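WARN no homologs supplied; continuing
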Amino acid sequence: MAEAHQAVAFQFTVTPDGIDLKLSHQALTQIYLSGLRSWKKRFIRLKNSVITGVYPASPSSWLFVVIAILATMYTRSDPSMGLIAKIQEHLPVSKSLSAQCQTVVSAVVFSTLLWLSLILTMRLCLKQLLSYHGWMFEQHGKLSSTTKAWMALVRIFSGRQPLLYSYQGSLPNLPVPKVKDTIHRFLDSVRPLTDAHQFERMSTLAREFESGMGKRLQWYLKLKSLWAANYVSDWWEEYIYLRGRSPIMVNSNYYGMDFLYVTPTPIQAARAGNTIHACLLYRRKLNREELKPSRIPGSLIPLCAAQCERMFNTSRIPGEETDTVQHWQDSEFVAVFHGGRYFRLWVYQAGRLLSPRELEHQVQRILDDPAAPAPGEERLGALTAGDRVPWATARKTYFSSGPNKRSLDCIEKAAFFVTLDDEEQGMMGDDSGASLDRYAKSLLHGKCYDRWFDKSFSFVVYKNGKNGLNAEHSWADAPTVAHLWEYVLATDSFQLGYNTEGHCKGEVDPSLPRPQKLTWEFSPELQQQVGRSLAVAQALADDIDFHVFSFRDFGKGRIKKCRISPDAFIQLTLQLAYYRERGMFCLTYEASMTRLFREGRTETVRSCSNESCAFVCALEEGEEREECRRLLRAASERHQNLYRLAMTGGGVDRHLFCLYVVSKYLGLDSPFLKEVLSEPWRLSTSQTAVQQGELFDMVNHPEFISCGGGFGPVADDGYGVSYSLVGENMINFHISCKHSCPSTDAHKFGAQVRKALVDLLDLMYTEPARTSSRTPRHYQHNPPAVKKDQ
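OK structure emitted
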């Protein structure tokens, strides 16, 4: 208990001679330095708030305006047209001030008001400029004069050196589409999925809704859009994520993988040390707003950064009716799980961030700790993997006081969660495909009790040095977490690095206190509830079928040469693969972002369109090659248009979802909305963003590529498909489904995807598309700090 004694800043003893006071110099130093770090963070937040608040101007521009006004007055001109004199008349200053001083004060007040007015005007102009989305619908490489003028104005009003949140006040609000437009787009999306009778029935329901209840619901929605920054996001978070009572493991959480071909070090503690340190460096940049604002690739258009605010020090808290997302301002420790035990690992010492070598030393202490887990402690995490109501009840009953509450607070208030896994994972062995499938399942659900699924994100570091992460979905979407993950991987490998023995670089402070093992008290009733939650989670995990593979025959490089959008190409591939496997089309979900708007999250692209179905049928029925090409291009253009509409607020599903929420608040029942929102998404797809920060050199270091990430199936009889376009010559796929459905098989569907990819490119090229069916070349780059996977 040496660390406990060090934490005591002073001790006193009452004696007959008086009070004997003993001060601990070391403890007082620690308190002083920790407080100093806290005040520094407050000052930085205050400074950034001022800089962001006056953007696109700068604080120094205020001085320029003041000097300009005073200089103009010195020439006996009145730039205020009498306003300075009016201000002087009503200025509550002492009469002891001379008339000249009163004039100067009045001029400064006028200059400040003028400066603030200019800032507001510039911000409103920028907001109006960012509301224009016509550029997105223009043909690539052929911009209109209007768009060129718009781009010049955006550049002028965007200011210089923006901080992470500088654009937040200038982003437009998400517009509410017209009910008529949404209904038209919805009917167009279901036309290829219904027969004539079903379509006529749905059209009747839609027309009745549009002419009746829809008008009333739309009025309330427009009222909300005037009051709230985003009419969708808060309801989407609450009703889609937080009110769900089923397990969030598999159903909501998602994962991200490590490098595909290399492992920077085989030492588990060293990899954990660099990963934790890199992640905390990212948090420091985030707190200081030093990260560059995300933008549309290749443009000046900013994206909303609101999701970054709850990345760290955040946990989902279970409730009986609805969960909540709890965020803390700061945290100086991380929670670590290993061997059935939970630890608190302090990451700061005397206000200083521990070095990677010191973090490795502390992690190794946890790995070497011989203490056995308390009875019931090993499987405690299963509560976060099972149904939400039993977890909420158990939390209220067994974790509201005593050591259980203190230990649970340590996990929930931690910066993030780390699991030191006893298994080895990654692409290894003779059957690399099967090893990737196991790797994906391990990251998605593990053993169902060795992850804390409620944390905003959790790192998993395996015994062989591989790592990965599991993220909770309610607080943010995958691109935000992917940005963090890319930074961590790049910093780990290219900046921090390892020595020749595979250990982290740096020295160790021998006075570091040992990581603190958390203590628990488990009653028999609590252990029984943990067992029930584990049974639910284990049944769900065992039912998941996964197939992960890298398609290397070609990539987006050859697809773009066909003058087709790579994303549209893959979506058409998925439609063709599904049709070949099932002999039918299905409602298809593709995630698109709405971060062009303030607090924007996602919108649905209904990828199964009339045009895509016409193309697939023509190809399968053996139509002429030129006709199939024409239909493919038409389907691709249609998909791109649907994606652009979704990004610019013209999607279907979020609007209908919000209308449904309003109807429930008003106690109204809409057969149309009820039927629309009950339709299953049997093909749920998402593209994983890569190279958001341009941190990897794909040309000189092609082996340093991640395999991306994935998620579980949305429908019991459907597929979940995540894909990433890596570099110019690789496409990674993560396909999930359920064993319990006899009509789905992840590996068979993967085979259909491979065949469809080649068939589509063969259609567009006169020469064969299969130019690289051999195994990937052996990369020669082999720095001392990198160990190749075997």
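The first strand starts at residue 10 and ends at 15.
OK
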